[in-house]
Amino acid sequence: MGEVFKRKYKDAQGNVREGAKWWIKYFHNGKDIRESSGSAKKTDAERLLKQREGEIVERRFRGLQMEKVTFEELMDDLIREYRMNSMTVAIKRAGPIRKHLQKHFAGCRAKEITTEQVKKYIEDRKCQLAADGTINQELAILKRAFSIAVKAEKLDRRPHIPLLPLNNVRSFFFEHEDYLKLRDALPDHLKPVIVLAYHSGMRREEMLSLTWDKVDLVNGRITLSVGTTKNGEARIIPLAGELYEAIQEQAVAVSKN
User: Fold this and answer.
1) Which CATH number do you get for residue 193?
2) What percent of the chain has pLDDT over 90?
3) Count of H helices and E strands in the chain?
4) Domain span at residue 116?
């Protein structure tokens, strides 16, 4: 059984006093674990204790290390993966994006970056007149950073990161709900194909002839050259959001092979 308590300390005069914040104590694998709730409200501490006890019972508790992961650590790990896979283009792209994210999330613990916080970031960037496609590219980087942390078991989950709708989505081929069902039902190696088709509107022949020299992750675009499109004219397809992330993950996979 756990408990909530306030830590005691002695002041300069030697009097015993209680700290302002509530702490919790619980047991895991025979160890006595004490954790600050970070709150002066007893109810917040009781809620946290109940959460921890539930995680232990359901075997989801992995220690307090996850609570200490910061935004900066997420981004450092992202850049480290890019360097390990010699993704120089992705590193150049991630630098400016990190600066924008840093202004909003600097010093935040990963657990504090919630869907609500991401929505506030979107609002801030819109106030700065950033294009929707640009914002989506920034969110895709943040989403990728969380995915890396989850894969490395530094975090147990990532927050839902909403993306802005873009006009280049040719949704008349699929209702969005039907697209999501199809995408989720496909095996992993085929999901990038449906993501590319849905978000870009590229035709079968255009996708089959697509090569990496036509993909620009730094500027976030695919360039279809003259003669490779149906009408024979060059076309630029912006990369953002889910499409940007899918192409980025394919780049990582290719670099490992």
Assistant:
1) 1.10.443.10
2) 21
3) 10, 6
4) 68-151
